[in-house]
Amino acid sequence: MKTIREQILTALETELGQLRTANGYYTDVGQKVIRGRYDASPDELPAIVLIDNIESAARGGSYMELSMPVSVEASMYFGTHNASIEGNKLLGDLLVNMTSTRLTLAFTSGSRQPRLGQTITGVTSGATAVLETINLSTGSWGGGNAAGTFSIRLPWGEFESETLNNEGGETIALTPGTITLVPRLSDLVNDIEYQTGGVEIQPDPGENIVKVTAVFTIHYVTLAGNPYKQT
Hints:
Elements: H1 4-16, E1 33-35, E2 47-52, E3 56-60, E4 63-77, H2 83-99, E5 102-110, E6 119-122, E7 128-138, E8 146-156, E9 162-165, E10 171-175, E11 179-181, E12 191-199, E13 209-223
Parallel strand pairs: 1-2
Antiparallel strand pairs: 2-4, 3-4, 4-13, 5-8, 5-11, 6-7, 6-9, 7-8, 9-10, 12-13
């Protein structure tokens, strides 16, 4: 049996593994996520090291209110690009992955399957979001009657009952505008708070690795005296 803390860390590993350009991020640093040590070796890059630290605890009736700091270290080769610019891409990807709101947007009459990671736009509202996953319930794209939900991140604006277009301006589906909030890490956590982060000391000439560290605090609860249960 896994403690709630370990369940959260396992879920974080999965989330950080989504940091790929194919999913609409700017880097592929999520292709390897490492736990249990403090650094990745050069032959493992690009990679993320996830470090869980000593948490604080407070009793609240029959519950323990816990705050677990985690350090997320992302490293990659930057090639001929500017180390600072590439490092800030890494930091942006980490912040989006760890703290951005995730939603589901209902759709019907799907006739053109969108590519994961692309931006979808509401034709009437002008609202936009980045597509993470497609959850097909009925119908098919080829039949023009696909229906289900899109999992989205970085929403901007409010979707209405309207047509949805892809980045090329092509119609992909209709939406009733129904939005549902997706629980963070399978509803295990109450909040993920960004504490500090940035690009580490710029590499010297001849060095080709950029590293970014971001620290987050994971707020969650367990039953008092039972780290395996929340209810």
